[in-house]
Amino acid sequence: MTGVDPSDLLALCKRRGFIWPSFEIYGGVAGMFDYGPLGCALRNNITDVWRAIYKGREGFVEIDSETVNPREVFKASGHVDEFADLITYCTKCQAPFRADHLVKEFYDNPDVLSPAELDQAFIDHNVKCPECGGDLGKVEEFNLMFKTNIGPGSARIGYLRPETAQGIFVNFNNLYRYNREKLPLGVIQTGRGYRNEIAPRQGMIRMREFNMMEVELFVDPEDKDWPRFPKIENETITLVPNTTCEPVTMTIKEAVDKKIIANRVLAYFVNTTKQFLIRLGIDPARLRFRQHLKDEMAHYAADCWDAEVLLSYGWMEITGIADRGCWDLSRHAQFSGAELTHFKKFDEPIEEEVDKIKANHRLLGPRFKGQAKDIAAAMESMTPADVKDGKLVITVNGEKIEIGSDLFEVVRVKEKVAGKRVVPHVIEPSCGLDRIFYSVLEHAYDYDEKEGYTVLHIKPEVAPIKVAVFPLMEKDGLDDIARDIYEKLQLSGLNSLYDGAGTIGKRYARMDEVGTPFCITVDYESMEGDTKGTVTIRDRDSRDQKRIRIDDAERVIRSLMAGADFKTI
Amino acid sequence: MTGVDPSDLLALCKRRGFIWPSFEIYGGVAGMFDYGPLGCALRNNITDVWRAIYKGREGFVEIDSETVNPREVFKASGHVDEFADLITYCTKCQAPFRADHLVKEFYDNPDVLSPAELDQAFIDHNVKCPECGGDLGKVEEFNLMFKTNIGPGSARIGYLRPETAQGIFVNFNNLYRYNREKLPLGVIQTGRGYRNEIAPRQGMIRMREFNMMEVELFVDPEDKDWPRFPKIENETITLVPNTTCEPVTMTIKEAVDKKIIANRVLAYFVNTTKQFLIRLGIDPARLRFRQHLKDEMAHYAADCWDAEVLLSYGWMEITGIADRGCWDLSRHAQFSGAELTHFKKFDEPIEEEVDKIKANHRLLGPRFKGQAKDIAAAMESMTPADVKDGKLVITVNGEKIEIGSDLFEVVRVKEKVAGKRVVPHVIEPSCGLDRIFYSVLEHAYDYDEKEGYTVLHIKPEVAPIKVAVFPLMEKDGLDDIARDIYEKLQLSGLNSLYDGAGTIGKRYARMDEVGTPFCITVDYESMEGDTKGTVTIRDRDSRDQKRIRIDDAERVIRSLMAGADFKTI
Question: What is the reported pTM?
Answer without folding.
Answer: 0.92
